[in-house]
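ZP: hey, is the adenosine-5'-diphosphate complex queued? I don't see it on the tracker
AM: it wasn't, my bad. submitting now with these inputs:
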Amino acid sequence: MSGLVLRDVEVRAGGRAIVADASLAAPKGRVTGLLGPNGAGKSTLLAATLGLRRLAQGSVHFDGLDLAAMPAAERARLAAYVEQSAATSERLTVRDVVALGRIPYQSVWQSGPGAGDEAIVASALAALGVTGFGDRLYQTLSGGEQQRVQIARALAQEPTLLLLDEPTSHLDIEAQLTTLDLLRERAQAGCTIILAMHDLNLAARHCDHLAVMKDGRVVAEGAPAAVLSAPLLLDVYGVHATIVQLPGHGAPLVVYDRARGSGAGPDSG
Ligand code: ADP
Ligand code: MG
């Protein structure tokens, strides 16, 4: 099958399986949202997909290619990754950070980006609206600005598989929509995109496919309207959800509240 296919993936840490029997199929050229509560295993699954966490069991294939067995240099020309928090201690400008995305294409004796690389970096900066920050030190940017720069770095890598871990968590509401629209365009151009996220309404509106994790397992997968059901959201998040369809609004809207008598709120002891 084309796209990203994970089968029975297990990742172990601290003497236990933190991801177990996790399977999913993210369709090629589509945006797949990876949902689930804190600690469900989303970041671990994304890292394992790119060979950054060792698989104790299972397989990861993209377009039939075994990603786990692929040499890292080859994988870097295929797949890009935006980590949940990408701190850097080095004094790099924003343009330098985005130019890191071109390294997989540069030969070892090349001293820096070529003219073609510079054009790609400029276009990635422009796409994320961060051209004006090009000469600033990355460390001096706000969290949301840094997040946009990291997405620009991943786009400069020209990946055919793009994994993003909560890429809109620090973005303002307009930047969330702009960024997710941009990812949708990349998907339509053929890139397969998987993003971990928390906002159910953004997921419903911007993803073609959803996979939901709980306790290290993928417990539901499919079209957003089929996956986002009240029983599933109660089971996975412990919230009471109402799913409404507003006229003129394509995606379903999810409204939710804490389930009575559950959770760890201030008055629950
Ligand atoms: P998510 O991204 O869904 O919030 P993570 O994949 O980051 O979840 O983590 C899944 C679970 O695995 C969490 O309970 C986390 O504490 C645990 N975990 C992650 N890495 C390690 C590690 N190196 N040692 C022990 N536990 C870990
Ligand atoms: Mg995470």
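AM: back. The longest helix spans residues 173-188.
ZP: great, adding it to the tracker
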